[in-house]
Amino acid sequence: MADPFYITTAISYPNGRPHIGHAYEAIATDAIARFQRLMGRDVFFMTGTDEHGLKMVQTARDKGVETPALAEEMSGYFRDMVAALNISCDRFIRTSEPAHHAASQAIWRAMEASGDLYLDRYEGWYSVRDEAYYDEKELTDGEGGIKLSPQGTPVTWTAEETWFFRLSKYQEPLLKLYADNPDFIRPESRRNEVMRFVEGGLSDLSISRTSFDWGVKVPGSDGHVMYVWVDALTNYLTGLGYPDDTENFRKFWPADVHIIGKDIVRFHAVYWPAFLMSANIPLPKQVFGHGFLLNRGEKMSKSLGNVADPIELAERFGVDQLRYFLLSEVTFGNDGSYSAEAIVSRCNADLANSFGNLAQRTLSFIAKNLGTLPTGGRSEPADTELRNQIAQITRKDVPAAFADLGLSQGIEAWLRGVFACNQYIDAQAPWALRKTDPERMNAVLETLVRAIRDLAIAISPIIPDASARLLDQLNAEGRDYAALEDEQWYDRLAASGFTLAPPTGIFPRLEMPAEA
Ligand code: ME8
């Protein structure tokens, strides 16, 4: 039985259309999910929309529509984005689903049964934009006497009767969790932030609201709906069938990794494990807080008018091009910047001019001059050297980096392999050998075709469609990482009499945008 691997993105607020930050998270998570599948793991990958809470209610009110209608329409755009960006999720969850209400009520009852819930009056600061409660000591003064959260969003004074969760009881168990599992929160910088926050003391958390009714009803407590984060975090369980003892729940829980943005690490690394401990449910193995994507170095906001539509970017530059750009440009965990110019220049340099050109000139030369795959050429040490280098990169360096969520590091290793091939092709000049030394040319071309196939497999989690098209041209049989160990594929294919059709280019050169 393949080893199970459960990975999730955050679920997005459908109070607007998806932006490039949402696309980035979905793409990065998809690359990891695809990588694990190609490593032979039995993967369950979930994403979706987080539809409750005051932010949704207020946005709907401002737009003059009903909240469920807003959720329905906007959730559809997130689903469209998932399809448009080739995101291979196994489940798209919506928190408005009845099954999710049932799961949230079940975890609530489990926390109640542990004696961790009590009714009291909440008075304090709340940020609707973050859907978060903040302590007075965390706030700063903004313009016009407005108080701001650590995320820079306005907070308002809230006072109502609510249910509380005894978060304070979990301060020590949480600190022990972080100490015993240094990889529970990654990257390191976020782990330090969380530890400092928890060491500073935890107040009990208000977990229900009475001033609006758009949410999951608190069981046995009329007039209360759950604080949106209680139900939102529970989505990770709902998707596997909790509270029923389903096959998926037994197989995939606890999650291997929750991929989220840095602004919501506190919810995932403090509240979520505390809720789970209280409900006696095993904890996820890891929470990874990626960085933020900035438009030309500036924070994106609707008022600045610089919120890019990811579907438009993908249509303009190509889905794989957008994926490649985002995952190579930004070190996973750090913030990064994007612009049309940066997408064009990176994709042209790495994909069109380096990998695409390597494949195109090699395969079209063979198609034109030989038709079938060359065998029995006269090998020289340079061939073995390249083969060893490509084997090291595709079988060791790339998978080791991807397995550790080092997406850009894996891509860098891959690119070193592409450059090595281009150097080899220039040094060996097979075109010149055609007349002077065809036996030597055959060995060079064979070495190149093998390398191109290996590089196409290794990079396929990042650019799945382009890799598949290239592997189709080669009629490649095995396409997972185990296939990289199979060195006989070439001989079998050549012996089958396979003829290479004139290849079509996989990576068109992109035009530099005229406007800035
Ligand atoms: O936080 N760059 O939803 P959300 C990169 N519903 N990532 C970004 C980003 C940016 N500019 N802006 C947002 C929520 N994100 C909650 C999550 S999970 C149980 C509930 C990331 O729509 C953000 O960090 O505001 C989060 O991981 C995801 O996009 C959804 O953000």
UniProtKB/TrEMBL annotation:
GO cellular component terms attached to this protein's record: cytoplasm
Chief location: cytoplasm
Classification via InterPro entries: aa-tRNA-synth_I_CS (IPR001412), Anticodon_Met (IPR041872), Met-tRNA_synth (IPR014758), Met-tRNA_synth_2 (IPR023457), Methionyl/Leucyl_tRNA_Synth (IPR015413), MetRS_core (IPR033911), Rossmann-like_a/b/a_fold (IPR014729), tRNAsynth_Ia_anticodon-bd (IPR009080)
Protein name: Methionine--tRNA ligase
Lineage, highest ranks first: Bacteria, Pseudomonadati, Pseudomonadota, Alphaproteobacteria, Sphingomonadales
Matches recorded under CDD domains: Anticodon_Ia_Met, MetRS_core
Classification via Pfam families: Anticodon_3 (PF19303), tRNA-synt_1g (PF09334)
Function: Is required not only for elongation of protein synthesis but also for the initiation of all mRNA translation through initiator tRNA(fMet) aminoacylation.
Keyword line: Aminoacyl-tRNA synthetase, ATP-binding, Cytoplasm, Ligase, Nucleotide-binding, Protein biosynthesis
Position of sequence motif 'HIGH' region: 12-22
Keyword Nucleotide-binding in record: yes
Taxonomic superkingdom: Bacteria
Localization per record: Cytoplasm
Principal EC category: ligase
